[in-house]
Amino acid sequence: MILRSIENKNIKKYLSLFPVVAILGPRQSGKTTLANGFHANHYFDLENPRDLIKLENPLLTLEDLKGLIVIDEIQIKPELFPVLRYIVDNNPKQKYLILGSASFQIIKQTSETLAGRVGFYELGGFRLHDITNDGYKKLWLRGGFPKAFLASNDQKSVLWRENFITTFLERDIPQIGVNIPANTLRRFWMMLAHYHSQIINYAELGRSFGISDMTARNYINLLEGTFMVRQLNPWATNTSKRIVKRPKLYIRDSGIFHSLISVNGYTQLTGHNKLGASWEGFALECATKSIDKRNEELFFWNTHSGAEIDLFWQHNGKNWGVEFKFSDAPSITRSLKIASEDLNLEHVWIVYPGKEKYKLNEKITVLPIAEIPGKWKYV
Hints:
The protein is an alpha/beta fold. It has helices at about 5-15, 30-35, 50-55, 60, 80-90, 105-115, 135-140, 145-150, 155-175, 180-195, 200-210, 215-225, 255-260, 265-270, 275-290, 335-340; strands spanning about 20-25, 40-45, 65-70, 95-100, 120, 200, 230-235, 250, 300, 310-315, 320-325, 345-350, 360, 365-370. Helix 7 (about 135-140) crosses helix 13. The chain is globular and about 65 Å long. The two termini are about 35 Å apart.
């Protein structure tokens, strides 16, 4: 079993600040295992028919309980949110951990009923920090879902991921009230994998799939709201350059991405034409886990002339950037120099698969992926 020390520490901090903590993330990412580590006084799993029946009258069931109460898969019963607001306002002896795998539903419901009472914590797959320093290749190939990563061999990992995709499409999506044929969404998802790490054009995507651009956007939003894809928005600046204004798309879990493009082994991956895109997506997810920012506060920057930075954010009034390069020895490119100057970047890190950390100048550092910290360290 892998101890997720950073997640435990962060969730303890949230529980000290909020009466309700929502742990959001895809199914099978370890939310339940993590919650069990807090030794809750009461536990309700809404996929268990008995627990679902117990919460048919939620006020009667919950109001006299004390201590930490876990409610798993809460998106199945969204009518619980107003009840929780009433209970936490009137019973300071309770704390709630609510777990869910459909962020758009939970955030909407809690924003309307639990504003100021809830802290959101997003749990993805394993972090680099959770594994040994030389294990990033395995994490990259298999992805961060615990059962995929911990499988006894690559073949079993592939089998688990294929079954996860099928279950997600055939059971999880209908369960949240979305009626899209599983085969349709599977084909769309596979097509999206070929746009991985690219700037998305909804109209072009819709034409390729034979649907409207609005339907394409809705399908992507659905996959984003269930933590399967990431849309990284462009950073808008006042420079005179023509800036790309459409989002960039990534399949969030590298193992799921590899299954969608039929890559089953590391040797196959290193010879694939999506190698660079795969590295960018994997390294970006590793970096975002260590940056204390919500997704909507992270950006990329790209001009029509080709200057770009893969990841951009602001912290303490300064601008920071990260580039991701699958290269033996990254160097300063013209694109990176322009981005650094135009965005007035305090520092840029170039994350690569090598082992040596070195400076290219005072503001640019080449950083091995294994040295991405648990929490981003600013220079």
